[in-house]
Specification:
With 278 residues, this protein is of the alpha+beta class. It has helices spanning 7-13, 27-43, 90-106, 120-124, 150-158, 167-170, 182-185, 189-196, 233-251, and strands at residues 48-54, 77-84, 110-111, 114-115, 133-142, 171-173, 207-212, 215-220, 256-259, 270-277. Strands 1, 2, 3, 4 and 5 form a five-stranded antiparallel beta sheet that branches. Helix 2 packs antiparallel against helix 3 (90-106), helix 3 (90-106) crosses helix 9 and helix 8 (189-196) packs antiparallel against helix 9 (233-251). The longest helix is centred in the last third of the chain and has 19 residues, at 233-251. The two termini are 36 Å apart.
Length: 278
């Protein structure tokens, strides 16, 4: 059943779900999710698409360990993110995938981002790919099992799923030496907090935001040697952060736009984009 809670509340309550009850998703709910995917696929400007695929019982043993988030049990339905091999905009891909994940949350469904190390060959058996396409992100979609498994608890501990870096490590004012606190952030404190709560690969939280007189500048603080084998999962994480910041700001009536503009050069950070209020 679709809830009418705010997007901010949805971001607060959404967590990774690894243990599902195995029940089929209600027809009406599944159709709503597919409608959202069709709309996104029709509107996107990048060479990417998103589909829902169902694992048959005969496939159940083929896909058990999916990605760095741990073992998925009881899930039969998956959201699959597909990108053309020539497409490099992982930021926008992550932005779109997170929009779907949060919509699924509002439909009462559990999800879990899986990227990088899931079994691509198993998913190719249930998703028809174009000659130049590849699967880069998947997520189970379904109903959470009432009792989580011991293994799920261990996996959440391993990826520090309940931990988030403090403001002093993520948000800065004018330059890297000055932390941005909630009081100085003012009306943007909540959008920034939604960035802080956002999911990221292995919970590395690679985003950094620097506030200046011209807006909020988003950077990637890359973990050396991580996530670059076939798809830039850390740039993907910046897309998640963008979606959280933008949609929270819009819900609060803080209109603005994303631009590539003059920005402070910060050692060891990669500039991504800037938010300028209107």
């Amino acid at each position: 059943m679709e809830t009418h809670q705010s997007i901010i509340e949805t971001m607060k309550i959404r967590t990774s779900v690894r243990t599902y009850d195995g029940e089929a998703i209600a027809v009406e709910t599944l159709e709503k999710l597919n409608e959202r995917l069709r709309a996104i696929n029709a509107a996107t400007t990048i060479k990417a698409r998103f589909v829902i695929s169902e694992m048959k019982d005969t496939d159940g043993n083929a896909v058990k360990k999916l990605g760095t988030y741990g073992v998925i049990t009881g899930a039969k339905t998956y959201l699959v993110g597909i990108i053309d091999q020539s497409e490099t905009d992982a930021v926008q891909f992550g932005y779109l995938f997170e929009s779907i994940v949060l919509y699924a949350t509002r439909l009462g469904l559990g999800t879990c981002w899986l990227g990088g190390t899931f079994n691509h060959e198993d998913f190719k058996k249930i998703v028809r790919l174009g000659e130049s396409e590849k699967i880069v992100i998947v997520s189970p979609v379904g109903y959470r099992k009432d009792r989580t498994t011991l293994l799920e608890g261990i996996m959440r501990t391993m990826v520090k799923a309940n931990n988030r870096k403090p403001w002093t490590e993520l948000f800065f004012n004018q330059d890297k030496t000055q932390a941005l606190d909630e009081e100085r952030a003012g009306e943007y404190a909540i959008p920034l907090e939604m960035v802080r709560l956002a999911p990221s690969a292995s919970n590395k939280q690679p985003w950094r935001v620097l506030h200046s007189d011209t807006g909020f500048h988003f950077y990637l603080c890359r973990t050396k040697g991580y996530g670059l084998a076939s798809y830039d999962v850390q740039m993907n994480d910046l897309g998640i952060a963008k979606y959280h910041f933008e949609t929270a700001a819009n819900e609060l009536g803080l209109s603005g736009t994303w631009v590539n503009t003059d920005h402070p050069i910060v050692e060891a950070w990669e500039y991504v984009t800037s938010w300028q209020g209107r």
